[in-house]
């Protein structure tokens, strides 16, 4: 049965590694649901966090094939219960009317989000949390008319 | 240009062969890599030069052959700007190389080259490509070659886990019908003798994959034949009767397994491979062992008990007798009609006594060569297996011959015996035309490669499928061939054509006696099929004998 897997790959920080990783997912016809890459505490190493929706057996094969990439040092596949997961979302909402602004601010406050930017014509809401928390705030804000909604893709640490 | 200018000063130390097409260079490098285990090197210019290497690189990737390709690239400030003769070689070759790297600064050259050779030949070997921008080629710097390669990220596991070996030995010691499937990994690891010892001690029959052909001397009593779509009858059909299968250095390719869900239903499987990604990839195995084949087999040898399985081995012999009666006799010793492909291989073999290195192209003749050539020495059969690249054999045979004549530093040739070993390219009338320009290279180098064309004026394997599965609708498979003898002579090669059975032996003898490169065009029966055959999607126990 298909499940959500987070594949965390550590690699030497060199051009071309992402290309090879992406190609492997292409060959196996697995869609990457989200992807974040950044340099980690030890310099010269990158950490890739790749979210996929796939069969366990296929994930096992993908992990082994990822190891074929020379620059890759470690690959770990995890289910959500073994991870602490966070994602950040930015939501831009048109709000010229003061009353509406207040309503939005209240909702955001209740949902543990914050207002990241504000000017005369719009608000930008910042929400850090799990994917579900972000989804639910997104739903709550929809009636106000969302101009832009962007999310970072998850980053995780292991429990 | 700067690289070639520098080569001018090294002509006495670096052997450079000017091939006529870059694809030929890549396959020739493969031929060299297959024989020596050391990377063959090919050079190509930027743009089209580099893209012409692609088929050869992909072929080396599929068949785990060590090669290092060096390509030129436009100057670094022009990379990405669609400059003249610029191609995204890094992007194009990423999926078909084990590793690739673009050098834009000459100071990177020593480290990157030492890494490239290390990566190409260690672990599971494969192709590596180094792309060097023009400015890096012109720059000068202080050269010092690193003595050893240190890479945190690349450390192939070469020694087996002792517990896994123990479990594997336990299974094999208890087995009633154990069966060894041996592949290319055994040859790469130079573990042939160890495997023979293991099989003899455990009394275990051994079948070889296409790339495993010649691991065992053909006549060895425990060698039961060749696996796969056109392999021997017994090794295929009896796979499904085995109770314990030891697969070494092979990857359960679909040509070997047939329909997966009916493959090895009763067997507990032990799988040894140096590439962890091969374990549980196609077939679920009981005991996966990540290791170099030699280390794993040697470790198993210590644990395995002396056994014999004569009733089980007799089953293979019975199957062989049936195959002999139904297929082999008529193929190798026909009394009438046109020359048959198997017959040509069989007679060639009588003359070479199994000492030759056979380099086969792709198609019916390839399967005939794998089936009917006999071998006495390991690593004597080279072909394009995974990719099935038509046009592979002629350039690969050149590379193989060079490997015998000029073994790499540190590898001592067996003296004259090795230098004199024949390299015979077995090809088809379709395949040979795909890299026929390399006849010019053979002539220029006067390289004594013998070329045998099994010529049926068809793209024979496709025609066979059309006959069997498409109601004989021979769509675009009939070929009007050139006169290969005239073509060869145009390239200043000796050549001969033979059509009659009674002239075949004489023609083969003349070919083997000749000093330089030689082409023999053998006209064979037009609509001959390769049997046995496991149709695509059929199970290994549904082998057709006719």
Q: What this model shows, in words?
A:
- The complex is a heterodimer of chains A (159) and B (546).
- Chain A is of the alpha+beta class.
- Chain A has 2 domains: 3-78, 2-Layer Sandwich (Alpha-Beta Plaits), CATH 3.30.70.260; 84-158, ACT-like. Chain A, domain 2 (Alpha-Beta Plaits).
- Chain A has helices at 17-27, 56-66, 98-110, 131-141; strands at residues 3-12, 32-39, 45-54, 72-78, 83-94, 114-118, 122-129, 146-151, 155-158.
- In chain A, strands 5, 6, 7, 8 and 9 form a 5-stranded antiparallel beta sheet that branches. Chain A has a 4-stranded antiparallel beta sheet with strand order 2-3-1-4, with helices on one face.
- The longest helix of chain A is centred in the middle third of the chain and has 13 residues, at 98-110.
- The radius of gyration of chain A is 19 Å and the shape is elongated.
- The model of chain A has no long low-confidence stretch (mean pLDDT 94).
- Chain B folds into 3 domains: 2-138, 3-Layer(aba) Sandwich (Rossmann fold); 162-316, 3-Layer(aba) Sandwich (Rossmann fold), CATH 3.40.50; 338-524, Rossmann fold (3-Layer(aba) Sandwich), CATH 3.40.50.970.
- Chain B is built from 22 helices and 16 strands.
- In chain B, the strands form 3 sheets. Chain B has a 6-stranded parallel beta sheet, with helices on both faces. In chain B, strands 12-11-13-14-16-15 form a 6-stranded parallel beta sheet, sandwiched between helices.
- In chain B, helix 19 (438-445) links the parallel strand 13 and strand 14 (449-455).
- In chain B, helix 8 (162-174) crosses helix 13 (293-303).
- Chain B starts with a helix and ends in a 23-residue tail after the last strand.
- The mean pLDDT of chain B is 96.
- Chain A binds chain B through residues 11-12, 16, 19-20, 23, 27, 60-61, 64-65, 67-68, 70-73, and chain B through 90-91, 94-95, 98-100, 119, 151-154, 275-277, 279-281.
């Amino acid at each position: 049965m298909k499940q959500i897997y987070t594949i965390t790959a550590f690699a030497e920080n060199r051009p071309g590694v992402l290309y090879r990783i992406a190609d492997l997912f292409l060959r196996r016809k697995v869609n990457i649901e989200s992807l974040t890459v950044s340099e980690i505490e030890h310099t010269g190493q990158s950490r890739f966090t790749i979210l996929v929706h796939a069969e366990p057996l296929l994930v096992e094969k993908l992990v082994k094939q990822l190891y074929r990439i020379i620059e890759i040092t470690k690959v770990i596949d995890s289910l959500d219960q073994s991870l602490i997961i966070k994602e950040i979302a930015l939501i831009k909402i048109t709000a010229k009317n003061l009353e509406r602004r207040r309503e939005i601010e209240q909702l955001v406050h209740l949902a543990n989000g914050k207002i990241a930017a504000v000017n005369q014509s719009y608000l930008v809401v910042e929400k850090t949390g799990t994917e579900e928390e972000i989804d639910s705030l997104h739903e709550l804000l929809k009636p106000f008319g969302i101009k832009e909604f962007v999310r970072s893709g998850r980053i995780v640490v292991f429990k | 240009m700067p690289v070639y200018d520098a080569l001018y000063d090294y002509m006495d130390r670096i052997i450079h062969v000017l091939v006529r097409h870059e694809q030929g260079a890549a396959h020739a490098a493969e031929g060299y890599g297959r024989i020596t285990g050391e990377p063959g090197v090919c050079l190509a210019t930027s743009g089209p030069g580099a893209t012409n290497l692609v088929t050869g690189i992909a072929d080396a990737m599929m068949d785990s052959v060590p090669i290092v390709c060096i390509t030129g690239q436009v100057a670094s400030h022009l990379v990405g700007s669609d400059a003249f003769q610029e191609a995204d070689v890094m992007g194009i070759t990423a999926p078909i190389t084990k590793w690739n790297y673009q050098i834009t600064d000459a100071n990177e050259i020593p480290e990157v080259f030492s890494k490239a050779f290390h990566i190409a030949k260690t672990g599971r070997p494969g192709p590596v490509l180094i792309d060097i921008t023009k400015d890096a080629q012109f720059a000068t710097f202080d050269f010092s070659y690193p003595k050893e390669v240190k890479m945190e990220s690349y450390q192939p596991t070469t020694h087996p886990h002792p517990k896994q070996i123990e479990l594997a030995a336990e299974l094999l010691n208890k087995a009633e019908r154990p069966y060894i499937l041996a592949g290319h990994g055994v040859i790469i690891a130079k573990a042939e003798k160890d495997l023979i010892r293991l099989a003899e001690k455990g009394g275990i029959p051994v079948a070889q994959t296409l790339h495993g052909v010649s691991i065992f001397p053909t006549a060895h009593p425990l060698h039961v034949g060749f696996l796969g779509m056109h392999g021997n009858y017994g090794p295929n059909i009896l796979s499904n009767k085995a109770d314990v299968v030891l697969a070494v250095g092979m990857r359960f390719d679909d040509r070997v397994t047939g329909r997966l869900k009916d493959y090895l239903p009763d067997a507990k499987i032990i799988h040894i491979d140096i590439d962890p990604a091969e374990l549980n990839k196609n077939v679920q195995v009981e005991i996966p062992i990540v290791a170099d084949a030699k280390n794993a087999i040697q470790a198993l040898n210590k644990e395995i008990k002396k056994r014999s399985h004569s009733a089980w081995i007799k089953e293979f012999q019975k199957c062989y007798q049936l195959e002999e009666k139904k297929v082999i006799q008529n193929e190798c010793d026909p009394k009438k009609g046109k020359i048959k492909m198997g017959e040509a291989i069989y007679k060639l073999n009588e003359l070479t006594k199994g000492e030759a290195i056979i380099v086969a192209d792709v198609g019916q003749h390839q399967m005939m060569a794998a089936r009917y050539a006999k071998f006495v020495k390991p690593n004597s059969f080279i072909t394009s297996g995974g990719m099935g690249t038509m046009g592979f054999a002629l350039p690969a045979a050149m590379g193989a011959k060079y490997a015998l004549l000029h073994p790499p530093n540190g590898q001592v040739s067996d003296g004259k015996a090795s230098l004199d070993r024949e390299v015979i390219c077995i090809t088809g009338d379709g395949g040979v035309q795909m890299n026929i320009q390399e006849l010019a290279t053979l002539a220029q180098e006067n390289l004594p490669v013998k070329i045998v064309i099994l010529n049926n004026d068809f793209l024979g394997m496709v025609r066979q499928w059309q006959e069997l599965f498409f109601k004989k609708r021979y769509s675009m498979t009939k070929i009007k061939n050139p006169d290969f003898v005239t073509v060869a002579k145009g390239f200043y090669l000796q050549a001969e054509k033979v059509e009659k059975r009674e002239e075949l032996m004489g023609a083969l003898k003349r070919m083997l006696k000749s000093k330089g490169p030689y082409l023999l065009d053998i006209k064979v029966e037009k609509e001959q099929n390769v049997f046995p055959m496991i149709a695509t999607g059929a199970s290994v126990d549904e082998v057709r004998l006719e």
